[in-house]
Amino acid sequence: MTGRGSGAKQKTRRGFYQKAGVVFPVRRIQRHLRGHHLVNHKARVSTTGALYLAAVLEYITAEVLELSGMAAHDNKKKRISPKSIFLAIKSDDEFRQLTQGSIMPHSGNYWGGALLSAGSNSSSGPTAIQPVPGKTVSGQSKGHLNLRKSKTIKGTVSSRKGRKTHQQAPQNQVQAGAQATWTSISHRTALPPAMDDEPLPGTVETLSQRTLVSGVQLSVLKADITSVEADCYVNPTSSSVAFAGQVGNRMLAVGGALLHGTIAGELYQHMVIPPCGAVTSPAAGLLAQHIIHCNSPSWTETDSIQKLQQTVTNCLDEVTRLKLTSVAMPSIGSGGNRFPKHTAAQTILRGISTYYKNKPPTDFHVKRIIFVLYDKQSVNVFRTELARLIE
Fold first, then answer.
1. With CB atoms 3.0 to 4.6 Å apart as the test, which of 83, 117, 162, 294 could cross-link to 278 if both were Cys?
2. pLDDT greater than 50 at residue 117
3. Biggest CA pair distance of the chain
């Protein structure tokens, strides 16, 4: 029997939140919940609820930190600034919806100098600039608008790229030669995505490349998929051959009547794509020769990750059957099917690596698979997951 003074090593007591693996302080969160004006120490706040809230806050903080680090890296910054956090949140659809109506101090302007376009006197658009006559505030704008207080803009405004844009005051409201105070009226409840994230039609920008052990080269491009030269395009759709969503609508807009006439036939009108299946049609009017239509699963389905990997496998079976050498595909599942971008990228890359790892080189002809992405967040996710891919 071990005595008290025998020098035996005693076990360190661990709290329940330490056993749960939560870093955020559960007791402090519980204390703040009890002191909230809706509770005011009159209702009971369970410890489990405080633990759940701490876990949610910790997860959101980790996600924001990861996206902010990517934004700082893209802008060639060594520190995460409020601007990096702002760009990370506003470039993510879910975080942008979560933070609607909020203002982040010292984070700058999302649109940069595009707010003060030359000769723009109308109040349309997400932010309107209106003069307030009769009052003058000293100072000069420094490239972005402060949404909390008004400043005087004297003649020119520095834009995002260092150029100067002349801003004329409306003649019917401010007399010539008089100073005017410009205030920004922000409608932030429906903040649109940044136009800089969308590639211009016809532009192709290769951002990352990697060659697998099997010899297949994987590339990450920020481009319009119809501008990429490949043997086939992948079109995520449902159980029918249709051009829906961002990728399908773009293909149909470029292909025009030729592409529409090809799929309007009786063969494709009555064709049913099985779950996780893939079928091929001609790519009339496009740079590619074929279009692979895949019935990708939804994130809410059971075994959705396995089904997405099977969808990728069936697409690659079509590529092998047609003896194609290059494929251009978007991020399957992360659009209308609501897959998280990281999960979709990991599953797609793992499916491609497993597919060609288990096949001898003589059984396939593909040399390059191109991931064509629109927004900056998807590009960053695929670049990160491509670098982390373990064969």
1. 294
2. no
3. 97
Which amino acid is residue 84, in one-letter code? S
Sign for the CA dihedral angle at 368, 369, 373, 379 comes to negative
Are 369 and 218 in contact, with CB atoms under 8 Å apart? yes
From the number of C-beta atoms within 10 Å of its C-beta (0-12, 13-18, 19+), residue 118 rates as: exposed
pLDDT of residue 9: 60
Instruction: Classify residue 188 by its DSSP letter.
Output: G
pLDDT the model gives residue 233:
96
CB atoms within 10 A of CB 22: 20
| Pairing assessment for the beta strands 164-166 and 278-282 based on DSSP bridges | unpaired
pTM tops 0.70: no
* Chain mean position to CA 203: 19
Total length of the chain: 391
Quote the CA–CA distance of 149 and 153 in Å, as a whole number.
13
The string of DSSP letters for 6-29 reads S-PPPPPP--HHHHTT--S-HHHH
Q: How far apart are alpha carbons 175 and 290 in whole angstroms? A: 63
Q: Record the tokens describing residue 100, joined without a space.
A: 């609607």
Q: Which residues contact 163 (CB under 8 A, 6 or more apart)?
A: 113
What CA–CA distance (Å, rounded) separates 268 from 242? 9
Where helices occur in the chain by DSSP H, the ranges are 16-19, 26-34, 47-74, 82-90, 93-98, 245-263, 266-269, 304-322, 341-357, 376-388
At 252-301, the pLDDT tens digits run: 999 988 888 888 776 787 888 999 999 999 999 999 999 999 999 999 89
> Is residue 298 within 8 Å of 304, Cβ to Cβ?
yes
Tell me the C-alpha to C-alpha distance, in Å, between residue 95 and each of 31, 90, 374: 27, 7, 18
Tell the residue number behind the tokens 């101090």, with chain if given.
105
How buried is residue 112: exposed, middle or buried, by Cβ count under 10 Å (0-12/13-18/19+)?
A: middle
- Could you report the per-residue pLDDT of 218-233, keeping only the tens digit for each? 999 988 899 999 999 9
